[in-house]
TrEMBL record:
The keyword Hydrolase is assigned to this record: yes
Keywords associated with the record: Hydrolase
GO MF annotation list: hydrolase activity
Domain of life: Eukaryota
Gene3D superfamilies assigned: alpha/beta hydrolase
Record-stated family: Belongs to the type-B carboxylesterase/lipase family.
Protein name: Carboxylic ester hydrolase
Species of origin: Podospora australis
Carboxylesterase type B domain residues: 5-435
EC number: 3.1.1.-
Length: 475
């Protein structure tokens, strides 16, 4: 069986405008659950639509067992979190050599989506936040993915280490590293994939661990202490992150509890019931009942806990639990970690253009256009990203925010002065459109600023709840 990808992967792709001189730089870290993907993302549309004001770099890094195999034996003989260290080396290379391509090494922004966004989070907290701006000045985390993060020698990574060894044809206990080093790359790729297939639905087999050197703490704890690197952060998520990762057969609360126990095996029955209490919804899943995007404001009692574009009832309850615990709440925690300081600041957003499932914002950021997003919306989104990369402030003009084709393009708009995130007055920019493009339908921007804490029936409270569960998850 052939597996996608190539382990000869430690390359960078640089996209630099002609004649570039001391331009800011964005370094892109791809997603894929730490087990899939590559650095082939084309950054030119984002660069060109921002007047060629910055340089783009896209990296590769080791994935699956090659990048994230962990155990005491691995640590004794080398390093764990090799994939994260690959990224750090790539960023350091950019700092050292991007001047050869017309880049300014003092103006580096790291950016990523999903596992790439999670990787950004790990670099934000690297070395207990003691790196400052050594590697980068700013960061962008799109849907920062936060799976379990056990210690490198804990039971879970150790059991997967031995499962990987057995799948590769080596012993399932004791010292196995020398045997593994004698196997071919193809054999090891197959073994890595086998471990993933044996895991919980929607997850990959290998992921970052607490290594005590680069990643010293759980993000939920360190972000609370606000020990972070860099100075400025743009972070957000999609409105419906969960459906791709939650099995679609949840009808009753009993079904939901079975899945929750698999997804969060370290939680006690009491803690699982607290998760349910934090997400109140007694309705059964009903395929004949309405399914639609909520507006975030709990209008008519509809919110992400009980209603979504692909599910309702207990299925949607599970979808939202996963979405918040793994993607949305880490974004909230990151935003808060960069708030309340004279030297740091952050900006929080939600991408809501239907159907805003995981990865939906990638098209808006990089293209290509598949007819789902109006041009005015893409302009607003990309200009916000570009402005942040260049200046550290994603604010856009009234015309860009309203849309050049709107009835009042120059009317005052709150994103002309995008509010920084503050825990006591938390603001969220909601990026949406007035509809979905169709034949004969004119669609425009519907970009607003809302209270992040009360959003979707008090998501802020649920994120506080999940943060307190962090040591038990662990996350």
């Amino acid at each position: 069986m052939a597996f996608p990808g190539d382990e000869d992967c430690l390359f960078l792709n640089v996209a630099a405008p002609a004649g570039a001189t001391k331009l800011p730089v964005v370094v892109w870290i791809h997603g894929g659950g730490y087990g899939f993907g590559d650095g082939a993302q084309d950054l030119t549309e984002l660069i060109n639509d921002n007047g060629k004001r910055f340089i783009g770099v896209a990296m590769n890094y080791r994935l699956g067992a090659f990048g994230f195999l962990a155990s005491q034996e691995v640590k004794n003989s080398g390093v764990v979190n090799a994939g994260i260290l690959d990224q750090a080396l790539a960023i350091a290379w950019v700092k050292s050599f991007i001047c050869q391509f017309g880049g300014d090494p003092s103006k580096v922004t790291i950016a990523g989506q999903s596992a790439g966004g999670g990787s950004v989070m790990y670099h934000d907290i690297a070395v207990n936040g003691g790196l400052g701006s050594l590697l980068f000045e700013k960061s962008i985390a799109q849907s920062p993915y936060l799976p379990y993060q056990p210690n490198f020698n804990a039971a879970l990574p150790t059991s997967r280490y031995y499962a990987f060894s057995a799948a590769a044809g080596c012993p399932s206990s004791g010292s196995v590293l020398s045997c593994l080093r004698g196997k071919s790359s193809a054999d090891l790729q197959a073994a890595s994939f086998a471990v993933t297939l044996s895991g919980v639905y929607g997850t990959w087999g290998f992921f970052p661990v607490t290594d005590g050197v680069y990643i010293k703490n759980l993000p939920s704890q360190q972000l609370t202490a606000k020990n972070v690197n860099g100075k400025k952060l743009l972070v957000g998520f999609n409105a419906n992150e969960g459906p791709l990762f939650v099995p679609g057969n949840i009808t009753t609360q009993a079904d939901l509890l079975v899945w929750l126990a698999q997804q969060f095996p370290n939680l006690t029955p009491t803690q699982l019931n607290l998760v349910l209490a934090a997400n109140p919804n007694s309705a059964l899943t009903n395929p004949a009942a309405p399914m639609f995007e909520t507006n975030g404001l709990n209008t008519g009692g509809f919110n992400a806990v009980n209603t979504g574009p692909t599910a309702n009832g207990q299925q949607q309850r599970g979808n939202n639990i996963y979405a918040e615990a793994v993607f949305a709440c880490p974004a909230y925690w990151l935003a808060e970690a960069y708030s309340g300081s004279s030297t740091k600041s952050s900006y929080l957003y939600q991408f809501s253009v239907p159907v805003a499932m995981h990865g939906a914002d990638i098209e808006a950021t990089f293209g290509p256009d598949v007819g789902r997003l109006p041009g005015d919306f893409t302009t607003a989104w990309r200009k916000a990203w570009g402005n942040f990369i260049v200046s550290g402030n994603p604010s856009i003009t009234n015309v860009e925010a309203n849309g050049a084709g709107s009835a009042a393009p120059t009317a005052p708009h709150p994103l002309s002065a995008w509010p920084t995130f503050d825990a006591n007055n938390a603001k969220l920019a909601n990026f949406n459109t007035t509809g979905v493009p169709a034949v004969g339908v004119t669609v425009g921007n519907a970009i607003t600023v809302a209270n992040a804490n009360s959003w979707e029936a008090y998501r802020g409270d649920r994120c506080y709840f999940y943060r307190n569960l962090g040591p038990a998850i662990p996350a």
